[in-house]
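Q: Okay, next protein. This is Beta-lactamase-like protein from Massariosphaeria phaeospora. I've checked the sequence twice, so it should be correct. Can you predict the 3D structure?
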Amino acid sequence: MSSKLVPSDPSKVMVIRDIVPKTITTFSTPFWRFGRIKVGGRGTVVRLQSGALAVFSPVALTEDVKKKVAEMGEVKYITALDTEHHIFLGPWHTAYPNAQVLGPEGLPEKRASQSNEAVPFTHIFSASTPILSIGADFDAEFTWEYVAAHANKEIVFNHTPTGTLIQADLLFNYPPTEQFSRTGVSPTSGLLTRLFGAVTNTSGMGQKRLIWYGISARDRSGFSKSVARIEKWRFERIVGCHGDVVETGGKGVFQRVMEWHLDLARKAE
């Protein structure tokens, strides 16, 4: 984990925010893709009605993060939302060894090849064997879709009580204003960052084209089917790992960015 990718002292620049009081907290931090492109990073913790905590895309486990987590409850589930968002799984598993660890197929092998810490996965999402149950308290509040056709093997969750879609790389919402708000630098500075922003914002055609011609090109039909299932869920907020949280109107944003895939899915019915 190079300091060119993540901050050397995350506690100085991380933004911890309750986006749904007493239920959902986000941990937003700077992150540079390839050490140059400002994309930002974000972890999310959801407090279930049982009092247990579900963690998604864990970020650096700073003392402030530990304190906030302790105030919220006991960590029971830790999820790497795709094959890219796993670098802090080791520290979180060490701190909360009784938590179930979830991730997509291919991730255990990838971590082993990179000599990451050994983490025992409780649930591995795969296209051949759908996961129907994770835990009674988890199942009662979440719906999920494994987007196997996504280049990063994306797992998407919807927290139904709050209408909050939680995902990593399925949809970006550039710029990463909150994630760089404590760094003293502009989240949009730099030519590469601006070029990246042109294809990862939610207002133009850039991201729609990127997903259609790039991310889903390997299996556009399978990707469209997953997107169509997600579109049927009730949600208004979108929490992603890169860029700002879509606080309201998330369903409309999702429909606009995924329009071509939703059209393809309808034609296939």
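A: Here is a summary of the prediction. The domain at 10-268 is CATH 3.60.15.10 (Metallo-beta-lactamase; Chain A). The chain has a mean pLDDT of 95.
Q: Noted. On to the next one.
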